[in-house]
Design goal:
Number of strands: 14
Number of helices: 4
Helix content: 10-25%
Distance between the termini: 39 Å
CATH topology of the largest domain: Rossmann fold
Number of domains: 2
Structural class: alpha/beta
Strand content: 15-25%
């Protein structure tokens, strides 16, 4: 787990640049005996900016960046010359990144679009030069404003994957196999629990040039909300899914009971997840015949559309895509 390339949580110190000081300067030229004040303003301190980048899908590039520091603004100069602004520090993050204040937990911003830029930590303002303080009664001010200090704060970035469909199920329910069958994704597949240790995304082609994004998250077990198995670490990734596809294998002892356990774990984590559209897929249906499917259909939950599928034999996968597409768009 520690060596995984999928990083969805980072914490770092964000420090914006301080503003430059205003200048105390007086015009001194030949034949101009009383030129008056002409001190320029200080430059603005650099911002810390988050920018959405669709080419990134993890926060791995920020894992070891514990301090993010922008440049300070330069001081003003004579001749009303403004100091240079400090260079901004721009951090590219994947879409679906949430920024929080580490101390208060307050959500600062959310990046959901490619190229979207949000100022995370604002740089200090530059001070005003003495040119701003001249008046009829104060024609030679010998003071200027200092620059505003930069801000230093600890920030948490959390990634919540953006997908149309989230696969929810126990370990070994066939979620990764389904993803590999309907998309070009190559998740690790094995005949033991918790083969999937990190979420996987796949783009599923649908009838021509249409497509939707499917997310496979690690399996949930009973007690996940209390920290069993992989716990609730990856449940945040289905919070932004349009629909939830519950997967229960055909060889499960009690399909209705397993579905109920999954629903209960989601409810304990976040009750709002139950407001999303839901579908139920009975996987590994290649081991069943038509008569057995008809018998099992009577035992399935009534309040959710269900379908029997097999990722290995491709049984009913096109019908599953139709069902998903209708749920997403209607």
């Amino acid at each position: 787990m520690a060596d995984s390339n999928f990083i969805d949580y980072v914490k770092f110190c964000s420090r914006s640049g301080a503003g430059g000081s205003g200048s105390v300067h007086f015009r001194r030229e030949k034949h101009v005996p009383k030129g008056g004040p002409d001190g320029g303003d200080g430059g603005r301190g650099g911002h810390i900016i988050l920018r959405g980048n669709a080419q990134h899908w993890t926060l791995l590039h920020l894992k070891y960046k514990k301090h993010v520091i922008a440049d300070n603004g330069k001081g003003g100069e004579g001749g009303r010359r403004k100091g240079a602004d400090g260079s901004d520090m721009v951090l590219d993050v994947p879409l679906g990144t949430l920024a929080k204040d580490a101390e208060t937990g307050e959500i600062r911003c959310e990046i959901t679009e490619d190229g979207q830029e949000v100022i995370l930590t604002r740089g200090g303002r530059g001070g005003l030069g003495n040119d701003h303080f001249k008046s009829a009664t104060n024609q030679a001010p010998h003071y200027a404003q200092p620059g505003e200090e930069g801000i230093e704060e600890w920030i948490i970035l959390e990634l919540k994957l953006l997908a149309d469909v989230g696969l929810v199920g126990f370990p070994n329910a066939g979620k990764s196999t389904l993803l590999s069958a309907v998309s070009a994704a190559k998740p690790e597949i094995g005949d033991y629990p918790f083969t999937t240790l990190v979420p996987n995304l796949g783009v599923v082609g649908y009838r021509g040039d249409k497509s939707f994004v499917m997310a496979d998250i690690p399996g949930i077990i009973e007690g996940a909300a209390e920290g069993r198995g992989l716990g609730i670490r990856f449940l945040r990734h289905i919070e932004r899914n349009s629909i939830l596809l519950f997967m229960v294998p055909a060889d499960a002892k009690d399909i209705k009971k397993e579905y109920g356990i999954l629903i209960n774990e989601l409810k304990q984590y976040n009750p709002e997840l139950l407001d999303k559209k839901r579908l139920l897929a009975i996987s590994k249906a290649d081991m069943l015949d038509e008569e057995l499917m008809a018998e099992m259909q009577k035992e399935l939950p009534d309040n959710i559309p269900s379908i029997f599928i097999s990722s290995v034999s491709q049984y009913n996968l096109d019908k599953l895509k139709d069902l998903i597409w209708q749920s997403i768009n209607y």
